Amino acid sequence: MTPDLPINLYPKPSPNLIQADHLQHTLNELHARYRSLNQGKPASYIPELAKANPDWFGICIMGVDGQRFEVGDTEQLFTIQSISKVFVHGLALEDHGRERVLDRVGVEPTGDAFNAIVLDERSKRPYNPMVNAGAIATTSLIKGKGATDRLNRMLAMFERYIGHESYIDMPTFTSERSTGHRNRAMAHLMLNFGMIDEHIDEALDLYFQQCSLMVDCRDLAMMAATLANRGKNPLTGIQAVPAEYVRDMLSVMYTCGMYNFAGEWAYLVGLPAKSGVCGGIIVVVPNRMGIAVFSPPLDERGNSVRGVKVCEDLSQQFGLHLFDCTGSEKIT
Ligand code: GLN
């Protein structure tokens, strides 16, 4: 029987807006509330990261309409670390397509630490591109005629998201390269199972280089906003990644982006996100905005303590959880 009334399968998003001054006021409040939270410690297993000032604390929101809201140390430079994994995953998808990337790296959350030396028993693939093993495999897929070309393609990719050129911090790169024994061990394990080819050192160097890209909180917010804006940088209008792959990137961020806190994060915050041991977190609110928080002290899972708090509060306060249907306050 055909129903009497048409069913609207594609309802328009709610037109309610967050007022700009309300958003700025909220950011100021959150910054003041969590500035004195003195839990966690900056990462020290990469010697260069231990030099971070635990008081650095910045929050930046970039709307898909190009409006920016910020508070604190949003121009302090730091290395992007694991947040790079999201964007290199996008480049691998662009280079090889969904099927081939899936052959080499899964999309299952691990429930283990980001640096766990573990592969899927059955398929021998690393679990997902957001943990180190999976990220090294993803990086090894980046196309190019030799190491320099691969690095240049990667830098050009980051530039499309950020909107300006960025560079690799050499002290961090060499620090990671000389101490990254776990990452090296993972690469060898994957070579053993044929998940990466024999150019291990080249793949590892490129992985350490991507982790050592210098960004600030504004850059990260812009990168997140680009993903929120279907892969198009809101200010330059440049398509950073084909729109068809944004879905893949966000899905993996949603389920795996916060390491072994990913389930709790999905439950509490309900948005695709990625953290790094630099103390940065990016959050994507699809079709609305990108959020970035930077504060180096980390909890035991490697996520920024203040960053997690700020994102929980923002999601709660503005009803940003993807599955929130109480309609508290919405942004178009
Ligand atoms: N470069 C770091 C590593 O490989 C990245 C880890 C992270 O940010 N979680 O150990």
Automatic annotation (TrEMBL):
> InterPro entries in the record, alphabetically?
Beta-lactam/transpept-like, Glutaminase
The processes (GO biological process) annotated in the record are:
glutamate biosynthetic process; L-glutamine catabolic process
Question: What GO terms are given for molecular function?
Answer: glutaminase activity
* Signal peptide (UniProt feature, chain positions): none
**Keywords (A to Z) from UniProt:** Acetylation, Hydrolase
Its Enzyme Commission number? 3.5.1.2
Positions bound to substrate: S82, N132, E176, N183, Y207, Y259, V277
Q: Which reaction does it catalyse?
A: L-glutamine + H2O = L-glutamate + NH4(+)
At the top level, the lineage of the source is Bacteria
Which HAMAP family does this chain map to? Answer: Glutaminase (MF_00313)
SUBUNIT field: Homotetramer.
Q: Which family does it belong to?
A: Belongs to the glutaminase family.
- State the name under which the record lists this protein: Glutaminase
Which species is the source of this protein?
A: Pegethrix bostrychoides GSE-TBD4-15B
